[in-house]
Amino acid sequence: MMKTSKKIILTKQTILFFICTFLFVPFSYAQELNLDEVKKSAIDYSRNIKNGKLRAEKAALARKEAYTNYFPEVEAMALGIYGFDDIIPPIVGVLPNGFDNFYSISATASQVVYAGGKVNLSNQLAQIQEEASLLSTEESTDSVVLVTETKYWQLVQLQEQQKVIASSKIYLNELLKQQQDLLDAGLIAKNQLLQVKVEKSNVLFQENKIANQRKLALLDLALFAGISYDTTLVAQANFKEPVPSPALTYQNPELDLQDNNRYRLLQKQVEAAKLQVKNERADLLPSIGVGVSAAKFDSFSRDLGVDIQPIAFGSITIPISAWWSGEKKQLQQQEIEVEISENKLKDAEDQLTVSIMKSWYDLQNAYKQIEYAKDRVLYAQENLKTQKDNYDSGLKNLTDLLDARKSLEEAEATWVNARVAYEQSEAMYLYNTNQLLSSTK
């Protein structure tokens, strides 16, 4: 009897050893993914961010181009002509000898003195466009980080669900062995063994389904973040540490939108629309310009005695017909665009305020959901233990035991979903309050 007991204990130890080996050895070779490193990789890899930086660079060049309008325009021209016969024949008393070639050299410098303020306006518009491009790049970066966090936690969610399924499979394997022993001893009917097998088949199906979903989620994250895809990659997540209350981690959400990139972008659109109105109005005003020109005309073969002649000039242009033609209508259209931009800004202010408050309440709800899920897991664990004791004592049937086991699996899955939902809700809150980039170390 003693030897039999030792053999049973040894057999159980051997089975436990192989189970542990099966569960943990593959993960010892896993490559771990770190959230901060994945976010940095996604930022470096994102084509949207690269295009945003290129647009910002283009806007900076446009601003420098606009600045050159403050300087005068300088042009130089040279012309030379050679004829086989005299281009100009001799003229008695004026040009004793004709000539068959001549050249001309001239240079002109002109400067706009006043053009309705269009030079200043073009520089201000270029400055606003550059600032808007930089804000747009920051907004693209925020969006990439948010999407990366969402995909990362989806992967973590599937990994944790795999652990729940693995735990269920171990439990059912032990229960199946117990049922087989009872059947061999003639203590139960075969349908009870088959009932456990059906339950295990369902768990195996879920295991295969989640494994495939995990591979797909990992591929999605790898492609988005620009990292090499490898099925051994495992996302790091420390779910053992307690989640602090959002009220302790964050103050009440700040509703001042002046630091919000999306709001500031719309502000820039309003500023640009107002400058466009001034720009269109400048087309209805006179423009004044001054300049100086110098030219020399002579022949290669002889000196014609023509010296360089400097000339100063000025010009005034008054667009009279513009007051009743297309320019006036364009001004009116641009004034309407200002009103449209201002209305969009007011709508965006309301929507962003609602989004911030919604993400704040969602974060609080996610925290409460974790507390509920923890209590549900504790109850399910205790219930399974009670049902197992009652089943072993013959007070409960197999169906009650399997239902209790399934309830525990569902409770653990609910806790995983709640924990991941909190991380995603936190990322959304930080995104809406323009703190997501600062949280990336």
From TrEMBL:
Transmembrane segments: none annotated. It holds the Pfam family OEP. InterPro entries: OMP_efflux (IPR003423), TolC-like (IPR051906). Keywords: Cell outer membrane, Membrane, Transmembrane, Transmembrane beta strand, Transport. It is found in: Cell outer membrane. Belongs to the outer membrane factor (OMF) (TC 1.B.17) family. This is Transporter. It comes from Mesonia mobilis.
